[in-house]
Amino acid sequence: MPMVFGLSACSDRALDTGLLGAVTGEPSPVSDNSSPIRGMTGERTDYPNLGTVPPRPTDLSTEAQRQQAMDRLAEDRAASRRTREQTEAIQMPEPLPTPMAVPPKPDLRPGRS
Question: I want to staple 21 with a disulfide (CB 3.0 to 4.6 A). Which of 26, 45, 102, 103 is the partner?
Answer without folding.
Answer: 26
